[in-house]
Design brief:
516 residues; 1% strand
Length: 516
Amino acid sequence: MAERDAEVADVEDRRAASGKVSVAALTALGIGSMIGGGIFGLPQQMAGAAAPGPLIIGWLITGAGMLMLAFVYQRLAINRPDIDAGVYGYARAGFGNLVGFSSAWGYWLSAWIGNVGYLVLLMASLGVFLPGFGNGNTALAIGIASVVMWMYHVLILRGIREAAIINAIVTVGKVLPLVVFVLIGLFAFKLDIFTHDFWGAGVGTGPGAVIAQVKNMMLVTVWVFIGVEGASVFSERARTRADVGKATILGFLSVLALLLAVNILSYGIVPRSELAGLGDPSLAGVLEAAVGPWGAKFIALGLIISLVGALLSWFLMLAEIVRVPAQEGLMPSFLGRENAKAVPVNALWLTMGLVQLFLVWTYFNASTYTRLIHLASALILLPYLLSALFQVLVAVRDRSRGRRFDLAVGVLGSAYGLWLLYAAGLVYLLYTRPSSTWWDCLSTSGRGVSRRPRSSIPPSGGSLRSSPLCPSMPSTDWQLVHSASDRRSQPSPCEPWPHRSRQQFIMLQRLRVRNQ
């Protein structure tokens, strides 16, 4: 009888495990949420910020800081396996219900607003190959984006595990073009191009100039690792909590390696002065310089696949980050209800409904959407700091032999979390009224798109002088993709640019604030 009971229990355990998300799928969720559109525009952005020497120093600092945050989620997954939903659960356990609710609410709000931008960017990317999509917010583009969004909805309703498996397959597809670029870049790389003006003598001499360049490039990197916490959000659905930690570290190291390779190889293929003046996606211009015109099309296709995968990853996390606080009584209980496939169906419907509403809103009045994303974007960084501070608390209370390492991880992660908030701009976290010039510029931009010649982009790509059309706005802006009819034009600097990537769109605003 005891043997029979043991067999039954073993079968039930295997069935339960079969419904869980594997470490490979968790890793793909992290990679998929971190790699969106930003990496495809990274070469031009970095070239405008720093020379190769300061760039390498900045990446070492950024990599070390983000590694500490990745270790925060890895250690907490092991030391506190009783806590679910990562960024929400750690904030609540460490600082109470109000902070936990605020963390989950801000994360969810920022993420679904960002998904609106991803959908518009996806449509603009299709405009490279198909007519009628414009900058991603034409009537046709909004209609197709809506269809795509509801296809994601249907897919996720079939089951979180099933959607996570598909996401893993798409993640392989989105990483493949980047790996191809790296392999080609290894052969096209020229050391003399890379080492020319290695420390950026054109922007000044001495340690001060190097430090300024390091800071400028680190301002750009603030947003490239958003999503590193992806595996921890699905901690309750993981087979083991150790898998969450493994997936977090594997995902982070994979993305860091791709970012470093893409960035450094680009400096050795195209001279920095030319690299800074490339149109986005600038990675397409780099590959075109190495192999010819087909390289640009190849990268444009890779961008589309990348955005498809990023959207799936973020839609999966959006439903999950609301479910747990709803089931624990911090959000309306109906948001925690699950269907037969264990999908938080009401949370998913609410999220998709809001994304649909704002998709339509970008067509009629994109400036209001811009004001909201300014308020919401910085909120996605706050949970990182709260998680790191909770790691400090856990380490202080722990009496085990690993206490010192955990404490060091928490302290260093907290320091980097504070830097992220500072670099992002506290004006958006606390929200004070922007300068009247910028506010008025937004208020009067509406849906109309005025144009200016592409040649008006500064050759350096990094100048922060004011635009003649919007005095408080830097004249450098990044346009990821152009339709065939718009390739010789740029949007007005007063336009909210809904077609940009999440990282590019937000970082342009941050650079303006930091340089006022």
